[in-house]
Structures are given as C-alpha cells and as structure tokens.
C-alpha cells in the first residue's frame, strides 16, 4: 500500500540499494564550484526550499524481506544533511580532492535519508560543495532536474542582487521552464531505438509491477518481439570472458582516491570528430583509453595488445519520464584498446566498437535484470552482480551537460565534476561531463589500484593533443601528396572550349 509516508521502492532502485558493500558504496559524488563565494545561510535556504521540494529527499529507504520501502523521516534534521566545512591547509584542489575522497569512502548514515552536502565556503576565491546521494534515489539524468531546479540563468542571477534576494519558499516556488530541459535530456545519450525503447520501458515496468498485470495488445506485441533478443543478449554477456588481470583490477581496500583535470574546450573535440567522421563520444572514449594505457606504461606494465572492457551507462528514459526520480538506464560493455598507442588507430577501433553496439539489447537487458534482482531475495543479488562486474574493469560515464553557464545564489558555476560508483569487484571509475562549452574529466579509484588518479586524468588533455596533431599531420601529408601528384602530371593543357550545350541542373555545382 502507498501512502504519503510509506511508498514501495521499485525493483531497480532496490537493486541499487542492496548493491552496497564494504569496498564500494553506491553513492554518486559530485563537486560544484562557483567563481565567487556563496553565503552559507543563503545556500542552506536554497537546499531547504528547492532541493527538499522533492519529497523523496525527506525519505529514507528501509529494507524488508520482500524488498524495500521509502519511509518519511519523522525526525528529519536539515543540519544533519547540510554541513559547512573548511579545508585543511590552502584552499586548493589537492585539499578539496582529499576531502571528497574521504567522504566518498565514508558510508552515509542509514538512519537518515541517504544524501549529504558539504559546503566549502572558501575555495579558490569562490565556494565549492560536495554532494553525496545514494544511487537508489536517482540516476544521473534524474539528478539533472534536481540541479536545474536549484540554479538560475544569467538574467535571474542578475536580479538576485536586488532587495528581494529571498529564495522562493514552499508556497512561493520559482517557476521552472522544463522545455529546454526536455530537449537537452533527449541528447544526453542515444536512445536504444524507437520501438526498442518502448519495449524496454514496458519490460522494466512488467518486472517491477508483476507479470500478472494485463498488457495492452500493442505492449504485448512489442515486448514479445524483443524478448528473444534480450535473452540472447544476456546469454552473450554471461559468455564473455572475465576481464584480464591488470593493475586496474585487484583486491579493494574501500578507501577511495579522487582527482580531476583542468577543464578544456569542447569545440576541439567536436572539430576532430567532424574531421574524422567520428562522434564526440568516440573521441572521448578513445582519449580515456589512451590515458589509461599511458598510465599503465608509465608504471612499467606491458600493455601491448591489452584490451579491457568498460561498463558505460546508456539513458533509457523517454521525454515523458524526465520529471521523475529513480533509475532508468542500462549498461553496455565496451572494449577499450589500451595497448594501441597510435591515436588514430585507437580512435577508429573505438569508433568501430561503439558503432557495433548501436541498437544493442544490452542496455534494456541490464535494466530488466536489475529490476528482476530487486524483486528476488537479497542473497541472490550479490553473486549475480559479481558475475557481471568481472566482465569489466572500469565504469566510464559520459554526460553532455548544459551548454550555457548556470548560477546558484547569484554566483556563476564555473566547474562541475561527478564520480559514479563501481559495483562488485570493480574499483575504477572515469566520468566525463561537458558544461558551458568545456569538458570536465574526473576519476575515482580504490587506493589499492590507483593511489594517485591525478596521474591518469592529467594525461587526458595530452592524449587528445596527440590525436589532434595526428589529424593535422595527416591532413598536411594528404595535401603534400596531392601537390606532388599534380606536379608529376605537369601543367594543364589548354583546351578549346566546346559549344555550350543546353544547361543541366546546377545541383552539386
């Protein structure tokens, strides 16, 4: 039974709740930075009035023999969730990363709603805050709505300096235009396909509400059409070999290390993709592979011919689902050629791999599997998750964010980073977020595997520059070859013009 104080948790969200382990907490960690300081009192009011307008964040998950429920926290205390902290030592990146890593290694208090925000009042001339939210509350797409509900555009931020600087209260909520959000979310990650997306949405719904419920005829037809493909995809994934033993896989300590690179322009990535007929995602994934491979070589490891798999989230939300919390995404297993040093060869190998996965049934299959695991006894889930986690080495997430700057409490947000959790025996995660025309790359890793992830993320920009240089050199070589060929042919001979015929269509002139 569902009431205002007690709501049954979906099978997928239950699976994420149960996925916590001593080595890996299923908590999404984010860092947001403003150019100028944010006032703590104003920030706290903003959280109270705009973050908590989502009732879910006043609820905590409670497990039982049949799954879990959302239960209203009768003793909800905002001070337990919003903390004002100071960095130890200089207010620089090293200190902020150390604090974020410590928080990422610390489980959230299960007796309260599973989220917390730490505001660092003084950071690099502005402010920063570290957000931790358990994955059972929402996936990345759902969290976008939460972020946008807390921010302003440039015009609103300009007006924030007026006498009426109050944050709208529960009875005076700011109107949020959601149409740009819907358009933007549709571009976050490629849908699984028109019919496929419909079938999967219905398939996940069936798993969560019970097969006994009646289906509309068109739903039954769509589901039946793709059920065989999902079963076949599951068999193929189970048949995949375990990922090879590398320093990126091993015993986990449960202590995390976090790092991020200086943001760099997105336009360069886009230009290289256009020049080579590849997507932005192809270029980004290839660059991640190059950075990981280069890191292992620098550590003295032989990576010749090495290929590992990354699990990559794929959005399965339709536009009509954007406005809800919860999880609605699947995963694909992507082979990454870490041992391929030539950046052009690596890019085209990455392009071929991702093109081969386009329209794959892996994302809906993994979503359906999570829904099923959330309905089964908890003892069944851990072995199943470990079976899948052994097929990959890292989680790599790429989310296109807002194209224009956002403002919070009137202050411009200059940087945004996030780190996704890893499940089972995986201990490495790379997150790429594009925001306001720049690419933000972050990495989280178990300290037993990568003690200093900064050594990896600092390779990202140089690896991309190698690719861009290869494109420039290739274009120059092609131009020289064309000029030499023209020189060998000699000067063009003069030809008497013929009598013009009746003009044809000018298309292509």
Written description of the protein model:
The chain has 509 residues and is α+β, with helices and mostly antiparallel strands. 39% of the residues lie in helices and 20% in strands. The chain is built from 15 helices and 16 strands. Strands 8, 9, 10, 11, 12, 15 and 16 form a 7-stranded mixed sheet that branches. The chain has a 6-stranded mixed sheet with strand order 5-6-7-2-14-13, with helices on both faces. It has a 3-stranded antiparallel sheet with strand order 1-4-3, with helices on one face. Helix 3 links the parallel strand 5 and strand 6. Helix 2 packs across helix 4. The radius of gyration is 25 Å and the shape is globular. The C terminus is likely disordered.
Output the keywords.
single chain; 509 residues; alpha+beta; six-stranded mixed beta sheet; 39% helix; 20% strand; disordered C terminus
Short description:
The protein is built from 15 helices and 16 strands.
């Amino acid at each position: 039974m569902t009431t205002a104080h007690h709501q049954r948790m979906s099978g997928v969200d239950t699976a994420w709740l149960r996925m916590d382990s001593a080595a890996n907490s299923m908590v999404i960690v984010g860092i947001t930075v403003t150019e100028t300081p944010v006032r703590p009192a104003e920030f706290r009011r903003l959280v109270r009035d705009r973050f908590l307008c989502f009732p879910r964040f006043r609820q905590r998950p409670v497990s039982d023999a049949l799954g879990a429920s959302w239960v209203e926290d009768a003793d909800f205390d905002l001070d337990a969730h919003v903390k004002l902290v100071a960095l130890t030592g200089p207010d620089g990146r090293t200190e902020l990363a150390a604090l974020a890593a410590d928080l990422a290694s610390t489980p959230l208090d299960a007796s309260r709603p599973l989220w917390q925000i730490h505001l660092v009042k003084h950071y690099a001339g502005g402010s920063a805050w570290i957000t931790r939210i358990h994955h059972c509350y929402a996936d990345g797409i759902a969290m976008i709505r939460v972020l946008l509900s807390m921010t302003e555009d440039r015009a609103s931020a300009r007006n924030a300096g007026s006498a009426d600087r109050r944050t709208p209260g529960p009875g005076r909520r700011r109107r949020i235009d959601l149409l740009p959000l819907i358009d933007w979310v549709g571009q976050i990650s490629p849908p699984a396909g028109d019919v496929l997306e419909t079938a999967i949405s219905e398939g996940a719904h069936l798993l969560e509400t019970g097969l006994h419920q009646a289906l509309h005829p068109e739903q039954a037809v769509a589901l039946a059409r793709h059920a065989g493909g999902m079963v076949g995809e599951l068999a193929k994934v189970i048949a995949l070999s375990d990922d090879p033993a590398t320093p990126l896989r091993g015993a986990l300590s449960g202590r995390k290390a976090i790092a991020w690179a200086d943001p760099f322009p997105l336009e360069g990535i886009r230009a290289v993709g256009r020049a080579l007929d590849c997507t932005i995602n192809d270029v980004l994934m290839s660059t991640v592979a190059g950075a990981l491979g280069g890191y292992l070589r620098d550590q003295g490891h032989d990576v010749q011919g090495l290929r590992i798999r990354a699990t990559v989230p794929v959005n399965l939300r339709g536009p009509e689902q954007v406005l809800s919390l919860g999880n609605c995404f699947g995963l694909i297993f992507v082979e990454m050629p870490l041992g391929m040093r030539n950046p052009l060869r690596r890019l085209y190998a990455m392009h071929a791999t991702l093109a081969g996965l386009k329209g794959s049934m892996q994302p809906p299959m993994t979503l359906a599997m999570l829904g099923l695991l959330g309905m089964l006894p908890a003892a069944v889930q851990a072995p199943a998750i470990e079976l899948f986690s052994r097929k990959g080495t890292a989680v790599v997430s790429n989310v296109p964010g807002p194209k224009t700057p956002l403002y919070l409490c009137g202050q411009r947000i200059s940087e945004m980073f996030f780190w996704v959790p890893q499940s089972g025996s995986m201990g490495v995660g790379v997150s790429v977020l594009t925001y306001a025309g720049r690419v933000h790359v972050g990495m989280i890793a178990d300290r037993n595997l990568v003690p200093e992830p900064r050594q990896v993320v600092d390779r990202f920009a140089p690896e991309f520059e190698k690719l861009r240089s290869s494109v420039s050199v290739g274009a120059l070589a092609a131009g020289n070859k064309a000029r030499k060929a023209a020189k060998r042919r000699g000067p063009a001979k003069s030809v008497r013009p013929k009598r013009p015929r009746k003009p044809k269509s000018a298309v292509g002139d």
